[in-house]
Amino acid sequence: MIADTQVPDLDVSHWFNTSVPLDLPKLRGRVVFIHAFQMLCPACVSHGLPQTQRVQRLFRDTDLQVIGLHTVFEHHAAMGPDALKAFIHEYRLTFPIGVDTASQDSPIPSTMQRYGMRGTPTTIIIGRDGTLRHHRFGIEDDLLVGAWLADALAEPLPETTAPNLEGCTSDGCAIPVTTAHSMETGTP
Amino acid sequence: MIADTQVPDLDVSHWFNTSVPLDLPKLRGRVVFIHAFQMLCPACVSHGLPQTQRVQRLFRDTDLQVIGLHTVFEHHAAMGPDALKAFIHEYRLTFPIGVDTASQDSPIPSTMQRYGMRGTPTTIIIGRDGTLRHHRFGIEDDLLVGAWLADALAEPLPETTAPNLEGCTSDGCAIPVTTAHSMETGTP
Amino acid sequence: MIADTQVPDLDVSHWFNTSVPLDLPKLRGRVVFIHAFQMLCPACVSHGLPQTQRVQRLFRDTDLQVIGLHTVFEHHAAMGPDALKAFIHEYRLTFPIGVDTASQDSPIPSTMQRYGMRGTPTTIIIGRDGTLRHHRFGIEDDLLVGAWLADALAEPLPETTAPNLEGCTSDGCAIPVTTAHSMETGTP
Amino acid sequence: MIADTQVPDLDVSHWFNTSVPLDLPKLRGRVVFIHAFQMLCPACVSHGLPQTQRVQRLFRDTDLQVIGLHTVFEHHAAMGPDALKAFIHEYRLTFPIGVDTASQDSPIPSTMQRYGMRGTPTTIIIGRDGTLRHHRFGIEDDLLVGAWLADALAEPLPETTAPNLEGCTSDGCAIPVTTAHSMETGTP
């Protein structure tokens, strides 16, 4: 069961770059970096997505999970899954990317509503314990993103938290390095 | 009638940012700068389109006609006119943009075939006399583009060429400044 | 007394942007970021020094001490203290900058020799306990620098280490935040 | 004899990157691009000098003469000829660079005074006929610089102007291409 302080889960209708759908409960125990973007958002294309690609590459030796979230809240017809697929191909994006589920009665998709995002790009960092560490709309400086990620990665997993080991990505299903000890002792 | 040395005309199925369709015969007497691009082409988005916007702005006091040409030869479903419309809106593009007419039996659209373009971005410069001055695939240096445009703009209109005055753009329908004299005297 | 695992101290002949000379023993308890540069080193001017300025600005709410070290090992006549003074003025550098003391019998200045630096730019990060955490020649990515600094800043001060409170900069002589507790207990 | 409409000549105390001193009367018949800079001027280092290097490279097939002019009007002690020599070496500058002659009674050097320059960077373009085509203080856009140079290069040499053949550079002493005919007839 997820406590109230936990972040809302992602509501994703389609995944790219991963054979296994991701969800936050399964990723508990790991730090998660989410870049919410739209493929026709200039600041996402020029800044946010290249930054996310650098994060994916430069933190590859940690157990950080990088996720792109396509939060389409305008021009819906122009940014459907097929368009996104072509975009991902042309821009050579390799991290897992989920399509935020469209809402029935609002242009704002489901996850975007749950988090109360103000627009794109939005950067979200979730700690090992499943709580929100960072959530902000706009362009972020690389120095700060690096510092926030290091802080989150350095945080030990609370003993009462049962890490979930199913955090698979397109790179495979690695056992989180920082939770090896608590995993062995297990929880009741 | 267009002589053999004239460039092929544009075959455009839809125009944005202009209330009047453009065609090269009507633009004779003016220099034309064409940026052929695809909205999902990274080098076009990061380099070619910003360069074209700067050309539009920095040469606004000349009679240069800037044209964007959306030459979609891949991911057709993702780059239809509606998607392009959203793209133009989000990237604040203000120069006239034509959609290269799709081919029946080839992924390569019509104008792209006529010119034998190798891909996107492609830069084309057409002289006042309607002949091709520059046609190359790839990213171009601003210094060279500036020099090519100045060379083309400095070229006087051949006396035997009847300039066409209907070169309207979204900015209005200005009389080409460099052809004012020959316009008055007319041609037999 | 400094243990063998401690880094060598700086050997500085002249300081800019600080009224009080800095030295590493006095800075123990705080994290120190050192950017070793030469004013005529292109990679330092285009990358290293702007990065160091961003570090100074973005980490201003921590007790990080940023230090520039002018390690001249070539063109000595062109990069004397007066030239450096003009350079600092023109480039609006605000962090403390020390001139690495020239060697009598070598073009390599003193601190550069002590640390075995391979050239400029070189980035050095020293932990609260006075030991070396990072030392590398070349350009560094902002994401990584941010992460290294956060890791170093998150490290608690060892209880056996007496923090030295005299770490003054041009901004004043702030009490290190991480040592606030021991300070409070030490006053009536 | 130089007519009143001619630009003032350069007053240079020392040349780098050329075995033969350059002067404007000798360069008549060719277009001259002058970048006035100071080695400790940030906008010159980040923008003007890289632009001048690109001009040198991209216009190498024309008879354009590129000249750097070191117009030191502040921090004189820090920017003497030895410092400039080291700077030229480190920044790999290859075009001819002259040191503007210091004034006896003013911090403003001689050529800077003659032209009434307002600061650095300043861009000057001189036409084949020796008259001033462009003179402006500040950063210039590559597109415009390219256009100005093309315009100047396209200008034919006035028949009454005797081109001077001694325009040597570090690349050698090439015969100006545009003046080849008059040269042949003009020599015994």
What does this structure look like?
4 copies of one chain form a homotetramer. With 188 residues, the first copy, chain A, is α/β, with parallel strands linked by helices. Chain A has helices spanning 24-27, 42-58, 81-90, 110-115, 142-154, 180-185; strands spanning 12-16, 32-37, 65-70, 97-100, 122-126, 132-137. Chain A has a 6-stranded mixed sheet. Chain A is globular. The model of chain A is unreliable at 165-188 (pLDDT under 50). Chains in contact: A-B, A-C, B-D, C-D. Chain A binds chain B through residues 40-42, 45-46, 74-75, 77-79, 82-83, 85-87, 89-91, and chain B through 40-42, 45-46, 74-75, 77-79, 82-83, 85-87, 89-91.
Outline the fold blueprint.
4 copies of one chain form a homotetramer.
Chain A: E1 12-16, H1 24-27, E2 32-37, H2 42-58, E3 65-70, H3 81-90, E4 97-100, H4 110-115, E5 122-126, E6 132-137, H5 142-154, H6 180-185
Parallel strand pairs in A: 2-3, 3-4
Antiparallel strand pairs in A: 1-4, 2-5, 5-6
